[in-house]
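Data card: per-record layout.
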Amino acid sequence: MRAPDDRADLELTVTAGDGAQRTERYDVKHFTVLKPSTVHGMPHAAGPVLVVTRRVSPDSVEALRVGGHSWVSLHPLPSGLRGELRIGDQLLELKPAPALHAEAGPSPGPGRPGTSTAQVMQELLWRGTVTQSELTSATGLSQARVSQVLNKLAKQPWLTAAGGRPVRWRVTNVNDLVDHWLTIYRPTKSVATFWYSLESLQNQVQAAIRSVGPSAWVSGGMAADALVPWSVPQSALIYTSSMQDLSRSGLVPSQVGEASLQLVITQDLAVPPSDSAKRVIKALSSTEPAFPVADPLVVLWDLDRSRDVDAHQSAQRFREALLGHLEADHAS
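The structure for this 332-residue chain is written out next.
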């Protein structure tokens, strides 16, 4: 059964692990429950088709594959598969997000840190002085993996190991640690969708978060403005762990250059703030942010790459406030 008058163009941009991006524009078709007969009866489309449904059966998925269509389902198949996106000659499978503290996967290659390295560096920054055991507890990584990461980071001039038992690791220069993290961090593979609305950015973000649910984190200019007001953001960036259709929240699919809101679907463990990062977020803000904010380092990373007017100055202000708080907090 198809929802009436519920189709629109949607532009998706996929970021691969090496940073390369591919973009595809889809004719979107919405269904409540998708049956194989419905797939067979769909009219021919001139371009790629993306089917969005609440529920899908394995037989329907097979019919979609035969037709060469992309699909996303709110409820996954028994295998856990939630969708398949065809972008050119590439096929991207959408699966449930792993636990936030899952062990890091295969090595991401030379010049780029693994997920566990980024997590440990973030926790070092937020805490200032910490033991290996505390890092293990905060990140969910194994003692052995945390030890490996610390042994590599021990060569950095901004980190020192204080004597005693247990050994306490102390950050001696928060500015250098931030520089190091921003230099080597690369987001994991992601899918971005782009949306537009005439509503205020604040209303757009609130509507999107209501649609996405608890696994949503605002980054970039909107997050920086909520914590350290400086400039007026012209666009919004939200991370989430699963594909979402925001058209039912009053937003319209948009091309990249015209979008007012970008929704990034990712499993990047650097994005959700840890308990330590949440304390920093709370300390930076004079009032409780109206929405969940991504890890402050990720916010700074996105600000540095934003196309918004005054984004560079906003990033400088945000960084100054962040470093000022951390230096005072670590000294106390």
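Known properties of this structure: DSSP finds eleven helices and 14 strands in the chain. The radius of gyration is 21 Å.

See the next section for split statistics.
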